[in-house]
Amino acid sequence: MNVLAKKQIDSKEGVDISEAAKILGISVEATRKRLQRGSLQGYKVDDRWYIVLDVQDMKSRTRPGEDSDTSGTESENDQDTNEDVQGAILAYQQMVESLQGEISFLRQELSARTEENRRKDHIIAGLTQRIPELPSADQQEPAESLKHELMNQVQSEIAATVLRLEERDRKLMEVLREIQDSKDQQKKGWWPWRRA
């Protein structure tokens, strides 16, 4: 321990931070903050901090719960508490603003998705109306029989058409023969000497 620290201890009583916190009736962290701000005096010996309290302060504040004059301590404690509360309020306000921004973004996304889904539903409904209804299994059997019936009908019409064409060809051949015969007769003529 150096001479300066010894003089300070002799002239004023120094206690470690936790003991000072008990004497003052505040937390250890509040005691450290007060030491940093300079509202409490202290010194360091062998890497350990000691708080210097007046003997009168120590006598009037022997225990934290006892009745004593703590108006100065309470105002400093209130100041520490107010700073802590204000810091917490500021942090919460920033968090609330951030969350409100996220909520606003998510609402916009939800609105866009809802509109997109509505458009898709409208398109699907339009396409569904264009698709013809497929026949059920009961309706397919009559369709097959109708198909066979139509095939038979077409085949009979083709056969009838072929018969009509053959009849026409036969008549044409007869007409052509008659024409040929009449030409042959004209060549022979009615002159007897031309007969061969």
From TrEMBL:
Renumbered residue ranges of the record's region Disordered: 59-81
Domain DUF3967: 164-185
Pfam entry (one): DUF3967
Chain coiled-coil ranges: 89-116
InterPro entries listed in its UniProt record: DUF3967 (IPR025052)
Keywords, comma-separated and alphabetical: Coiled coil
Coiled coil as UniProt keyword: yes
Protein's name according to its UniProt entry: DUF3967 domain-containing protein
Organism expressing this protein natively: Alicyclobacillus fodiniaquatilis
